[in-house]
């Protein structure tokens, strides 16, 4: 069982310790549910009231909130960021695989580095390269001539098609599919003719891809995911998309083909982005937006209508349906006012 003395945590996190440094911390929990032996954090002013009845052994907070605290504390500038590092130290998640499972099917031409683990019923095809410390969970498929970089981890039932490149220290969650064909067809007098996708997918270092997310291979050129990109569950990344370094994509996002997204962007959940255009660096798109034009200036962008009572929504819809007529009447009135003056 993982555990740390509070003073050791303070030293590793570069935090200022207040209270008993010999307290043993073996878990982390929310401020409402934390109990003895656990550490919690205060990063939202709305949760200050919980400090009065806190059951945790210690709390992470700012110097400003220390006066409200009556238990041991670690004082930092950014409690939420510190929580991330504490969670890593106390993480009890098992590894995707250990050693090479006897029933894993590994082609004789595959090249495995040092300390590689492959789970049960996984298939690794010809000329695959798994570099040192790679972990492949159970039931995965790794297609021909794919390369997976050092210390990357795949959870169970991940499918990696042929000739894919994945960088080092990546994490791919269960059910993700990398390198499937994009939605490319030509129409021959009403009949759809499939266009083979001859490109690949290139994924940078320290990329995380959520469960059941699909990243299509390029049609002619490649689909490229930059370094440090994080993609949530159930996202669709179409063929030839390019995502810049350190961009974050929340769940349920759909990206059209040949879209280029810049660095350090944040895409809110359930957003749909049209293909064949570009979004510049440092753009934030709030959830459930529809993006149909290029974005050339950094900033925060939104679209969509917030939820409202059905009765009000019906009235709003009626007005929207009449907006063309209202516009014509307004122009007629403006014209008449100008004429009279």
Describe the protein's architecture and organization.
The chain has 341 residues and is of the alpha/beta class. The protein has 4 helices and 38 strands. It has 3 domains: 86 residues, Udp-n-acetylmuramoylalanyl-d-glutamate--2,6- Diaminopimelate Ligase, Chain: A, domain 1 (3-Layer(aba) Sandwich); 197 residues, 3 Solenoid (UDP N-Acetylglucosamine Acyltransferase, domain 1), CATH 2.160.10; 30 residues, no CATH class. 14% of the residues lie in helices and 28% in strands. A hairpin with a 2-residue loop joins strand 21 and strand 22. It is flat, with a radius of gyration of 26 Å. The model has no long low-confidence stretch (mean pLDDT 96).
Summing up helix and strand content along with how strands pair, one would put the structural category as alpha/beta
Q: How large, in whole angstroms, is the Cα Rg?
A: 26 Å
As residue ranges, the low-confidence spans are none
Instruction: Walk across the major sheet and give the strand order.
Output: 8-11-14-17-20-25-28-31-34-37
Approximate helicity band:
10-25%
By CATH's scheme, which homologous superfamily of the largest domain applies? Hexapeptide repeat proteins
Count up the domains: 3
Output mean pLDDT. 96
- What is the CATH domain class of the largest domain? Mainly Beta
Total helical segments:
4
Strand residue percentage? 25-35%
> What name is given to the CATH topology of the largest domain?
UDP N-Acetylglucosamine Acyltransferase, domain 1
Query: CATH architecture of the largest domain, please?
Result: 3 Solenoid
